[in-house]
Automatic annotation (TrEMBL):
Transmembrane segments: none annotated. GO terms for biological process: transmembrane transport. One of its GO terms (molecular function) is ATP binding. Belongs to the ABC transporter superfamily. This is ATP-binding cassette domain-containing protein. Keywords: ATP-binding, Nucleotide-binding, Transport. SUPFAM superfamilies: P-loop containing nucleoside triphosphate hydrolases. Residues 13-240 form the ABC transporter domain. PROSITE patterns: ABC_TRANSPORTER_2.
């Protein structure tokens, strides 16, 4: 009798042979593969301009690759940006480096937090959910009525993180989330992410330049160069990173 193959648990996020960029003739990502296991935290290092943010955007279904496959919980992505099925779009939360580019300047922080709830028709209990999240990320209630230009970068990034968590994603992508922040705000936001992961079992892909932070924060740290043409095996450590950017 032939040996039975028992399938392993599906990765929370997987990129298989992804080629992507902004010009088909010169893609930024070429045949890149990466798997982030369910509940796993993976740090991604790499020199400035190598394509980490592009990879983060592909992972969050915000940028359509030219070739290759993105899987969420073992299911192939079936669309990109607003064409992604709602269940897949909401399975990934993303936080970018620059909150001022990511946040709509016309919205109050309360409206910013509630936006994904409204967009997905989950309008019941919005004030309670936004208050709960604001407290979780350390945003005082007096800040919720302010607009982005009336708060600090750190406060706005706390709001962006809360917004990324409001739909309780299975995967969180943090693209240099703390690069603009001081040490205490960095520690506070990392703690928020870790509390969320401990409570939800969500996976994390944390892109950054700070090797010490990523090593401390994540289960493993991979280097972008190791992702090209072949998956990184769990447990493999990245070689020393050259600080860049
Ligand atoms: N919207 C865009 N249009 C054209 N080219 C772009 C665009 N965004 C990024 N690029 C280019 O794609 C390449 C990879 O950029 P990306 O932002 O993914 O790199 P990165 O590794 O995140 O860099 P950094 O560490 O400096 O943030 C760069 O050469 C960049 O100039």
């Amino acid at each position: 009798m032939g040996e039975r193959t028992v399938p392993g648990p599906a990765a929370a996020l997987e990129l298989r042979g992804v080629t992507a960029g902004y010009d088909r003739r010169a893609p930024v990502l070429r045949d890149v593969s990466l798997a982030v296991g369910a509940g796993e935290a993976v740090g991604l290092l790499g020199p400035s301009g190598c394509g980490k943010s592009t990879l983060a955007r592909v992972s969050a279904l915000l940028h359509r690759p030219y070739a290759g496959t993105v899987l969420l919980g073992g299911e192939e992505a079936r669309g990109w940006r607003h064409r992604a099925p709602r269940a897949q779009r909401t399975a990934v939360g993303v936080v970018f480096q620059q909150p001022r580019l990511a946040a709509d300047p016309r919205l109050t922080l309360a409206a910013l937090l509630a936006e994904p709830l409204r967009a997905t028709g989950r309008t019941d209990g919005i004030p309670a959910r936004t208050a709960e999240l604001a407290e979780e990320v350390g945003l005082g209630p007096e800040l919720l009525g302010r607009r982005p230009h009336e708060v600090s970068d750190g406060q706005l990034q706390r709001a962006c993180l809360a917004r990324a968590l409001v739909l309780r994603p299975r995967v969180l992508v943090c693209d240099e989330m703390t690069a603009m922040l001081d040490a205490s705000t960095t520690a506070a936001l990392v703690a928020v992410v870790e509390r969320y992961r401990a409570g939800s079992g969500a996976a994390l892909l944390a892109v950054g330049h700070d090797r010490v932070l990523l090593d401390r924060w994540c289960d493993r740290t991979v280097h972008y160069a190791d992702l090209v043409s072949g998956a990184v095996t769990p447990g493999r450590r990245a070689p020393a990173d050259t600080p860049a950017g």
